[in-house]
Amino acid sequence: MKVTNILTAKGNTLYTVSSDTPLSQALQTMAEKDIGSLVVMDHGDLVGMLTFREVIQVIVRNGGAVGSVTVRSVMDDSPLTCTPDTEMDEVRRMMLGHHARYMPVMTQRTLMGVISFYDVAKAVVDSQDFENRMLKAYIRDWPADDSAPQPLASNQPAG
C-alpha cells in the first residue's frame, strides 16, 4: 500500500499557515477545524510544520501563555516528508523512528496533503480487516477434495 491510497481515502482538504502568522491565530484555526497540525508555507514553499507538540513546548516555556510569538519561532523547520509513492511500511518506520505524528506529502515542491499517524494506523487496520475477510471467505468456500481418503467399508454385518 502506498501513501497515495491514504490521500485518496482522506480527501483533499488541507490547512496551511504562513510563518509570520501569530501563533494565537494558528491555534484558533487548529481548534476551529479540530486538527492537530498546520503545514507552514511561505511563497508556495513548505518551510515547516506546526503541531500541538511545538505549541505545548512554547506554552510551557512561557509559563502557561501563548504570548505574542509567531509560527516561525515555534514550528518544526525541517519536517519529515514523503511522496505519494512512498510505501506504507516505510512511512511507518519513518514516523516511529522520528516520533512524528504528521507528515507532509510532497511531489517535488508541491504539497499534496498531510498524513497523520492515525491515518496510517487506520489504513493498516482496514487492510488487515479486508485480508481477514478474504481469508475467511476462502476457507469457508474451500472446495471438497475428491481424492481424500474415504473410510473403509466393513464386510462385517452390522449389529
Descriptive notes:
This protein has 159 residues and is of the alpha+beta class. It has one domain: CBS-domain (Roll), CATH 3.10.580.10. 40% of the residues lie in helices and 18% in strands. It has five helices and five strands. A three-stranded mixed beta sheet has the order 1-2-3. Strands 4-5 form a two-stranded antiparallel ribbon. Strand 4 (102-107) and strand 5 form a beta hairpin. It is elongated. It starts with a helix and ends in a 19-residue tail after the last helix. 19% of the residues are buried. The model has no long low-confidence stretch (mean pLDDT 86).
The share of residues in extended strands comes to 15-25%
What is the CATH architecture term? Roll
- Given helix and strand content, the structural type is alpha+beta
Count up the helices: 5
Q: Roughly what is the average pLDDT, rounded to an integer?
A: 86
Number of extended strands:
5
Can you tell me the number of structural domains?
Answer: 1
Q: What overall form do the CA principal axes indicate?
A: elongated
Q: Per CATH, what is the topology?
A: CBS-domain
Could you give the order of the helices and strands?
HEHEEHHEEH
Give a concise summary:
This protein is an alpha+beta fold.
Summarize the helices and strands and which ones pair or pack:
Elements: H1 3-10, E1 16-17, H2 23-33, E2 37-42, E3 45-51, H3 52-61, H4 88-98, E4 102-107, E5 110-116, H5 117-140
Parallel strand pairs: 1-2
Antiparallel strand pairs: 2-3, 4-5
